[in-house]
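Entry for the shared binder. Reason: the reviewer on the internal report wants the predicted structure included alongside the sequence.
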Amino acid sequence: MPTNLETVTIRKMTKEDLDEVTVIDSEVYGDHHWSKKSFFDELSNDLARYYSLINSDGKLVAYAGTWHILEECHITNIAVSPLHRRKKYGEVLLKQIIDDCYSEKIKYITLEVRVSNSAAINLYSKYGFTSFGTRKAYYQDNNEDALIMWTKNIFYEEYKSNYEKITQKLNEGIIVK
């Protein structure tokens, strides 16, 4: 086992996290970021699940949010502070989302992603998301299209087998508490 494992903590987002979360959101999304009130409202939404990722230095550096509606999970956002990218934090948050879907018997996961965001598209594709079309001019800041991505039923053996393989490799490089 490698000795350079990093330990991170994923926990439910709290209202005390919102100042840090809105800074990350602003860094990632610029002028079209969510307001603190939007996040605050999400924390009281029964359909929403929001997570904060704390790195080994004790700093909140990433977050993710979803809505759980019947058999579907819609990923509203996954954002990693630009200073902390390429450390697999987004992937760890995606794994948390998928694990929650297994726990809550949610079969399908969907999201929208900018067509230009190849890093995110590659991550989602690695985890079994495929494109089912686009939403034209979806993003208000530049009228960029959004790719609509879905998983197959995550309880299908083919999906589960692939998921176990890729998360085993992820777990060899990072420990989540």
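Summary line for the report: Helices lie at 18-29, 36-43, 89-103, 118-126, 157-171.
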